[in-house]
Amino acid sequence: MSPTTPKAKAKSRKDIVAKHKEFLLPSLGSHYADPLPFVSGKGVHLTDADGKEYLDFFGGIVTVSVGHCDEEITERIVDQLRTLQHTSTLFPIEAQADLAEKLAAIAPGDLKRSFFTNSGSEADEKAIQMAQAHTGRRQVVALRHCYSGGTAGAMSLTAHGTWRINEPNAFPVTHAANAYCYRCPFGKEPTSCNLECAKDIETAIQTTTDGQIAAFIAEPIQGVGGFITPPPEYFKEAAAIARKYGGLFIADEVQSGFGRTGTKWFGIEQWGVVPDIMTGAKGIANGLPMGWMITTDAVSQALNGKVYLNTFGGNPISATAALATVEAMEKRDLPGNAARVGAHFRNRLEELRDKYPLIGDVRGKGLMQALELVKDRKTKEPAKPELQKVIESAREQGLVIGKGGLMGNVIRMTPPMTVSVSDVDEAIGKLDKALAVGSGA
Ligand SMILES: Cc1ncc(COP(=O)(O)O)c(C=O)c1O
Question: What domains appear along the chain, each with residue ranges and CATH number?
Answer without folding.
Answer: 13-62+333-438 (3.90.1150.10), 73-331 (3.40.640.10)
